[in-house]
Every structure is written in C-alpha cells, then in structure tokens.
Amino acid sequence: MAQTGPTTAQLQPITVTARTTPSASVGGWGDTPLAKTPLQASVFSSEQLKDSGVQRLSDLIAVDPAVSDAYNAEGYWDFLTVRGYVLDNRFNFRRDGLPINAETSIPLDNKARIEILKGTSGMQAGTSAPGGLVNYVVKRPLDAPLRSVSLEWRQPGTVTGALDLSQRFGTDEAFGVRLNAAAARLDPMVRNSEGDRLVFALAADWRVSPDTLLEAEIETSRRSQPSQPGFSMLGNSVPQPGDPRISLNNQPWSLPVVMNATTASLRWQQKLGSDWRFVAHAATQQLRTDDRLAFPFGCFDPEPTPDGTYYADRFCPNGSYDLYDFRSENERRRTDALDLSLRGKLQTGAIGHALTAGVLQSRVRNRFQQQAYNYVGTGNVDGTLFTSPDPALTDENTNRDERSTELYARDAIAFTERLTAWLALRHTRLQRESVRTDGSRPSDYAQSFTTPSIALSYAFARDQLVYASWGRGVESSIVTNRPRYTNAGETFTTKSRQAEIGLKGASDAFEWNLAAFDIQRPRTQDFGTCDADATCTTRLDGTAHHRGVEANAAWRQGPWTLRGGAQWLRARVEGSADPTVDGKQPTNVPERTLKLQAGYDVAAIRGLNLQAGLVHESARMVLPDNSATIPGWTRVDAALRYETRLAGMQTTWRAGIDNLFDTRAWRESPYQFSHVYLYPLAPRTLRLSVQVDL
Asked: Which residues contact 671 (CB under 8 A, 6 or more apart)?
C-alpha cells in the first residue's frame, strides 16, 4: 500500500454525517475523499463504535449491509464475510496500511477508525481473498490535550474500564504522546465463558520541522477466555434455536483461549517540496496463542447411531455428538513489514497526475508445536454430559514461512475537472515454505504475478459521481505433500476479478451511493475417495460467482439522522464438475441484507439523543447441496446518548439494549472444517457506560 496512514500527526475522530466525506487509506488513493473515489468503502470512527456498542470487529455486521458473519464465536478471533466471500485472516487485514495477521483478538480501544474496502483488493495487497480488505487506523497524538476515562457494564457481568490521554509538549509543542489503556472482566451472556482482557498502547510523534514528521507506537494486549463451539444439524434436520446461553465448551477440564499480541511501528514522513512526500513505514507484529477447546465434531465414533448411519459432518439425531480434546499451545506468529513510498502531483499540459510509487517487503514466520486432537467421548446439545480429558500431543502441526516483495504504482489522471482515469499496478514476488513439526511433508515454492486495476469516473454534476472499475486479485496455494494426493506439491495461482459500476451523490441534507458488482473467483477442490494413497487429486473446479447491488444512504434534517443500506447478492457455484454443488448457493451467505440506524435529538432535553437500529438478513444455506437452510431473521436494537457537564467536566452517558425483542434465531451457518455449524443470535443484552472528558 502506498498510503500507509494519515499525513499529519493529528487524527481527529471522524463522525460520518450527511456532508462529511472521510477518506479511507485502505482504498489506496490517499487523502482523496471517498465521495470522489471509484470504489465502495466504509469508515467507522471511534465515536460511532461507542454509540453502536461495538466491542469487536464482527459487531460491524449490524451497520454495513455488505458485511456478515463467518464463524464468529465468543472468545475467539473475528471472521468477516464481505460481498459473500470470507476474508482471509492471514492476508486481508492491515494496520495503518501495513499487513498484519488477524488470527488473534485485535483490541479497538486504541483505534481511531476502522476502514472496510469492498471488492477485490489486488491493487492494495499482493495476495488476498476477494470481497474486501480491513484496515485498523491507530489513534495518534492530537493537537489539543485530551483526558478521557470511561467505564462500561454489559449484561450479565462484563465490566470494562478505559482511559485515553493525549498531550503535546516541548518547543512549539513539537512532541506528542497518546496513551490508551483498558482492562476488562469478561462475563458474557454465553455461560461458562468468563475471562479477562488487557490492552496498553502508547503512540508518540516528533514534528522535527514543518516538512518532517516521525511517529512511533506500540500496542500490547492479552485476552483470556473460553471459546464457544457451534451447534449443528441433528441428523438430517435443522433444529429450532435453543437457549443461546448454552456453551458446549463447559467440560470440567475446558481451558481458555489465551491470545497475547504485541505490535509496534515506526513511520517517517518527509515533504519534498509543496506537492511531493516520501514515507518510510515499518512494523512488526508478534502473536502468541494457546488455542484450546472441547470440540464437538460429527457423530461416527465409536459406534454408528441406532439407525446405522454415520454423520461425519453434523450431530446425531438425538442431540449427541463426538467430543474431542483440542489443544494447540504456544502458537507463535510473527509478521514484519517495510513500506517505502513516494507520492505527489505533477502536471503534463492540461492533464493532472496524482502519482504514487513504492515497494512493500514483508516476512511471515509461524512456529507451532505438536497439538492434541483426541476423541474423549460423547457430549450433547444440552451441555450436560461430561468426559475425561486427553491432552496427549498426538497430532503434528505445520510451520510456515513467507517472504514477499511488492512493487506498486498508481496514477489518478485528471483529464478535466470532471473526468478522471484511475490506473494501478502491483507486481508481487512470493516465496513460501512449510514443513510439519516432525519434519515431514516439506514444501517450497516461488511465484510472481501482477494485479492491475483500472477505473474511470465522471462528475456529471456538483457532488455527483458515476464510475466504472475493473480489477484483479490473487490467491496462491499448494497441494499438501501427502501420499494420498496424486499431484502433491502442485501450485495454484487463482486470479479473481471484479467489475463494478457505481453512483455517488450528496446534497446539504442527503448523501447516497449505489454500486453493482460482479466478482468471479476460481475454485480448487479435491476429487477422488481421498481415503488411501494416490486416491485424491486437487484441481480447479469452476468459479464462485457473486453478483450484487449495494445501496447506502444518509439523511439529516433538523433533529433527525437516518442512515441505512441494503445489499442484494446472487452468489452461485458455476462450472463445477460436482453436480451436487454446481449452480448452488454457497453456505452461510444471505441473499438479502438490510441495515438501518436512526437518531433523534430530543429538543426538550438538551444533549439527549435517542437511537434505534434494525438488522435483517435473509435465509442462509446450511449444506453445500442446498438441501438444508436456516430462516432469515430480524433484530431490533435501541440506545440513547446523553451529553452534559458535571462539575465542569464533559460527561457522556450511553445505554443500549441489543436484540430488544429477544428474537431467537440461528444467526449464521458456517460450513467449516467440512462440518455444519450453527450459531444462535445473542439474547437481549443491556449495556451501560459513562465517559468523562476532563
């Protein structure tokens, strides 16, 4: 990415209102406002996150119609689906523009905003899944002093305390420091899921001169909490949603998932004249995880069910299931990145150019130990059967290394004040290695590929834009070096592509955008029995073809603020040699989503704002052959914000009720690890908080 973050030390929180058009560095076009760029993206400020009660990334499904759940469990890291594609936690996440690994719990306490790009991301990333890209923007020192403390309680017993401090000092206030810290006792609605989390983050900058800025920051966090396994089909039926408070990870020997993370970065920004800037940005991320779970999986050991049927991908008809003791401890993941970029403007005759060129080097080193995955007996969906543990390390894990160099160039060519062409090119050289923890199944391969992007936009009226774009994305994989595969070691470079047309517009009170997109992603599948040596072959098998329309609007008039969005998505598997999935809808992808938010300033009580939200998602497929589904659902939320001054201090009270009518439904149906899982909608939950700005 060429634009690796904001260009000044000040990062004021952004509140998206009818005429506020923030920029999104995740889009790759620097400080250009979203209203003027040929792409779709969402920007969520820290204040928006507080008002909406967002505690983790997956909570954003209540706000953005293009975003939905993808195996989101209490006590685990977040997964997102964007435009029907599950984002890859290893490759689709950025922090201030640099790549990170999102296989961890990422705190939001020190994030100024979250940016979500929608669509293929080959312009911004060397390898990534199509659908979108997430960028976390870190809070930096402000120009004005800040002293803010907050306390939140969430039903039944989660309590979080946080502070946010910012101060400038020195001659001409050249030095700035910002401190964020938070501590929480976790007691969510899911039973047997108590835990805790801590985060400490420090950001500093030095305005060496009007043309030179140095920035440094470090963030360390820890989260310890038992994870939540999913429910499943019972034989050939989808059960009615039961008590969403039940956890199937309630064995006496269950241990928490512990996620420790430390991330640090250093950025130097140097102005080169009035129109050019050089940026050097380096970061390192080090993760340590103990991943542990009483894991329900299938119904086939040690005896078949009474009707003689094995169910390898779901629970037994009577609600029992096979239970495994899973433990993968001391997982260590490290990501290092260095981005050097040059950005500026020049004029060639009547044509203007906004140019960016740079190089991004990154290195990934993941180290694991042997893991436990041992059958320990039978559980049931009521969570009342208990077994004995078996922590023996009987299974190997896989160590991985990756090195990549990405060369990129972008040019926004303004032919006139209205007509602009947006051209981008990224060339990636990739080296990947892997080996099992016992030294077996080594693999090593290198690849090079180029991902272009092109768009044309036309401002047909003041604050009205129409655009068309086309771009590519790339994913790289290798067939596992196992005896069962006839083509072990073969590499696949699958190139996804997206075409999009869109409209954007704004007036004094109204802001809107509309986009139609078409994304195609090649699929790789295993063919054969795959149960003995040389019985399995991996090959390309059709495409995952997603076509859709997304619309968003915001309106503000007097005391009213209304925002909302909808997405219609036709996702299908096309051209597959497997007739059971060809032409079928992917699992866990709703065809229709609707997200609405409303706010009202109460004139009779100054500072009081009433809020309401509605989330609707249509039915989702449970099985790849579409023979089972879960119904659509609708959730209503209510909240308020009251701002006042107490003892001369600005005080903000927030209260909210999520799932106001206590709707019971299956929230999502991920088909993960070749197994059906069902996650229930969270029950009605009350939250209260107070924030004091000293």
From this structure: 587, 588, 622, 623, 624, 677
